[in-house]
Amino acid sequence: MESIYLVIVVFLLILAVFDLFVGVSNDAVNFLNSAIGAKVAKFRTVLIVASFGVVIGAVMSAGMMDVARHGIINPSNFSFNECMTIFLAVMITDVIVLDVFNTLGLPTSTTVSLVFELLGGTFVLALLKMGANPNLGFNDLLNSDKALSVIIAIFVSVAIAFFFGTIVQWISRLIFTFNYTKHLRYTVAVFGAIAFTTLAYFIFIQGLAKSPYISEFYKQWIKNNTTVIMLGIFLGSSIFVEVLHLLKVNVFKIIVLVGTFALAMAFSGNDLVNFIGVPLAGLSSFQDFIANGLGHDKTFMMTSLMESAKTPAPYLMMAGIIMIISMATSKKAQNVVKTSVDLSRQDEGEEMFGSSRAARSIVRAAQDIGESVAGVIPKKAQDWIESRFNKDDAIIAHGAAFDMIRAAVNLVLSSILIIIGTNYKMPLSTTYVTFMVAMGASLADHAWSRESAVFRVTGVISVIGGWFITAGVAFAICAIVCILMHFGGFVAMFLFMALDVFLLLHSNIKYGKKVKEEKKDDIFRLMMRTRDPEIVWDLLTKYVSRTQSFVARFALDQYNSILGGLRDENLRDLRRCSRELKDERDKLKKFRRKELLALRRTPKKIALERNTWFHLGANSDQQFIYCLTRMLEPVKEHIDNNFTPLPIEYSEEFEPIRREIEGLMKNSEHMISTNRYDQYDQVLAEADNLKNQMSALRKHHIDRMQNDGDDSKLEVSLVYLNILQESQEFLSIMRHQLRAAKKFMEK
């Protein structure tokens, strides 16, 4: 029996490593998004700074491990077997839930995941134990107050962080403007002093002063002299910042990097328990059972877990190193960071989220409120405020999503709110605070224009909704896994362990394919980052050419699939065509918006000249999809109803035309993709001639339908007639697309 539990403990420790990877992939956004979004330094430099914070925070986090041991569960009333069942269910659920959110690119809270997984597993076993022993109550088995405080913290932290993020950033921008280098003479010292004092308080008072490695004498000294220490830091840092400014050093870079270090340290110190707390609690339980349990796994109670954890420093250091490796290598970490940065970027660009009814209602209400407020403010005051928010003067590093003022506000304000929450014993989530501060700051910075507001709001709603879903999903899944393990015993435990490994491998393989697809859109990101209109135009022509040539190939493939599905009565292929046409229609909407955003950044003269041809080409791409859909639906319905198959004579008479259409489409696609239109006139002439042939064939078929008295062929004859009509339209669309592409690309 001991050997079986040893395998479970080893698996828990292995899952702890996986959990560190997926957990850091999710939570790296908390302290990396500001520095990366503002491009204050190279990515490697930001990682090095964050790494120091992570390692120090990890070593200082030994006291936080008690949350997993007895923060939710009351282990003195649970047996060793029951505790190991709960711990295993929590880790299996945690890795899967976090990996799903990372794959979707949505930041979520590891704190909420851990608390509600522990709550779900404990809750379901508590019900069984209370049924067997009526003398036990919920308060004897679990700490429901902890879960309730987390739920309250979700509501409070989301609203407060967004509100103060908006207000503080608006005031900061009013003071510094987007051209902040012109307004630093008298303000940079005060701003820098506040920032450094806040961060110093965050690092030393809330970090080092609570470390188990600091003696009680120094802890008490720091506590008694906190006010004097902070006042000294404020005065010293104000002088230091002013000197740096006079020496023409960019103070905001230093503030952002120090803030990155502080938040990384806080994240590691507070959230490390979310990743390794449960496995270490399992290891401690196993050690106690081996020493004192005498093999009675179902009667030996885990009273030892009520004691405070004594986590060895090497374990903490190893966890910190794994977290650093995860930050540096995880593509999913970069994806989660990308979500937060994209939702708060200053410029227009690709929107990761679509439009929702809730977002449209919120944006419309916000516009109405804004118009009402504007009616009260004097015109001169409005003009002065608008002059302070002139985005044309923005000083943003090449490739950055926003400037250093916003990055500094994000980090400093997040630190302040976390400090306040800690002092009031409010279990704030670093994810909630940092994300919502970033969203509020981007709103105050006018980053959400009327063109993008509805998409950004949808994104924020999606992320916030994901946070709430996390709690419910974590609770429910862990409860189900736990109850199945409880009744299924070791067999169920090992089956879930195997399932966990399979899901992780499958998820990573699937995510790798997704990353390869996203790399294809590098041209668009480059167009949105460059400031040279001529370069944008050159890149746009390549981007449009690639889109249109792909649509031409895609349309031809689907056209042949529809005809083949009708000929072979292959319903599966027809259904696949239907799904692919729908997906492509949605993708084309996104492509068109991206191309239109890029067209606005090209030289104005060129944009005006080519605007008509751009829209004609984009319309042609969409018309291909509509035409194929009109062709597909009658065919799919015909085959699905098992009606009369397509007569061989119909198939044979249309085959030469199908081959000619295929040849013309391939020639057209080749000209668009290579931007060489040497056969342009010839292809148009052949297309006109082929359309005339199809008109004659269509007339012949109508006459055949009128003269043929066989009613059994009526349905298939109508389907064939529809194919002839839509094939003519298909050729017309090809001509429009080719013409638009040539006119748009020509120099």
Automatic annotation (TrEMBL):
Places the protein is found: Membrane
Family listed: Belongs to the inorganic phosphate transporter (PiT) (TC 2.A.20) family.
Transmembrane feature ranges: 6-24, 45-64, 84-104, 111-128, 148-172, 184-208, 228-247, 254-276, 312-330, 407-424, 460-484, 490-509
Designated name of the protein: Phosphate transporter
Main location: membrane
Keywords of this entry: Membrane, Phosphate transport, Transmembrane, Transmembrane helix, Transport
Listed Pfam families: PHO4
Membrane topology: Multi-pass membrane protein
Keyword Membrane appears in the UniProt entry: yes
